[in-house]
Every structure is written in structure tokens, then in C-alpha cells.
Write a structure and sequence with these properties.
Layout (H helix, E strand, L loop, with lengths): L24 H9 L3 E10 L2 E9 L4 H11 L3 H12 L2 H13 L3 H12 L12
Antiparallel strand pairs: 1-2
């Protein structure tokens, strides 16, 4: 993971408290947003290429989920894409947009992870008693 160092040119002349300096992007995001979720996706666009893509999200809220359900009846692809962009952090937005242009099916994988945070089960069993 790439480390990013943030420096301040401001040097206080008195005993004012200083904002902490964060070393990694993830530390900076947690300080800015609180709870942050990292979604890492590995895709293989061809037999010789493997890409690991990383994006940062906030936890989807009920209003975002309701908009997704309402739009899904009109068009699933656009609804899922809007749901993803509704919850992605600004720091990941441009990269996600570029990646979705090149790999549109990526929206399914990322959207499924976000929906799982709201209780979408990966496996549900039904058994008649």
C-alpha cells in the first residue's frame, strides 16, 4: 500500500494544539469520515492479467437503499451504479468511475458487497419441517 505523508507549513508560535499528521491514506480517511470500508476487488480481464482494485466507501444508509430499490425497477445497471456512487468516498470516486467505464461488470461485485453490509445474505436456507 502506498503511504501518503501529509505535512503542514503552519508552525504555531504558542501552545496551540496541532492536528495530527497521518501516514497512510486509510488513516487519513478514518480521521475524516469515521467508519470507512475498503472494498478490494481482484479481476482478471484476460488470462495473463490480474488487477487488484481498491475503493473506499461509507456504510450505505436506508435512504440510499430505498433509492436503489426504486430505480431498480426502471433499470438494474443504472440503479446499481447510482447506489455505488451514492456511497463511495470522494477520494475513490474518479478511480471508480474510470474503472467502471472499462469494466462495467465491476458494479455487480462492488454493489453486492455494499448490499451485504445492509443484510443481503450470500446464502439462505429453507427447510420444511
Amino acid at each position: 500500500m502506498e503511504s501518503v505523508v501529509f505535512e503542514s507549513a503552519y508552525i504555531p508560535e504558542n501552545d496551540e494544539p496541532q492536528a495530527p499528521v497521518y501516514g497512510t491514506l486509510e488513516e487519513k480517511l478514518k480521521a475524516k469520515y469515521g467508519k470507512v470500508y475498503k472494498v478490494a476487488v481482484t479481476i482478471e480481464p484476460d488470462d495473463e492479467t490480474q488487477l487488484e482494485l481498491i475503493y473506499y466507501f461509507k456504510r450505505p444508509n436506508t435512504a440510499s437503499y430505498d433509492r436503489y430499490l426504486k430505480m431498480a425497477a426502471k433499470g438494474m445497471t443504472k440503479a446499481l451504479r447510482d447506489f455505488i456512487f451514492d456511497n463511495v468516498l470522494d477520494e475513490s470516486r474518479d478511480e471508480l468511475a474510470r474503472d467502471l467505464e472499462e469494466y462495467p461488470a465491476l458494479a455487480l461485485e462492488v454493489g453486492q458487497k455494499l448490499l451485504a453490509m445492509l443484510g443481503l445474505a450470500t446464502a439462505t436456507n429453507l427447510k420444511m419441517l
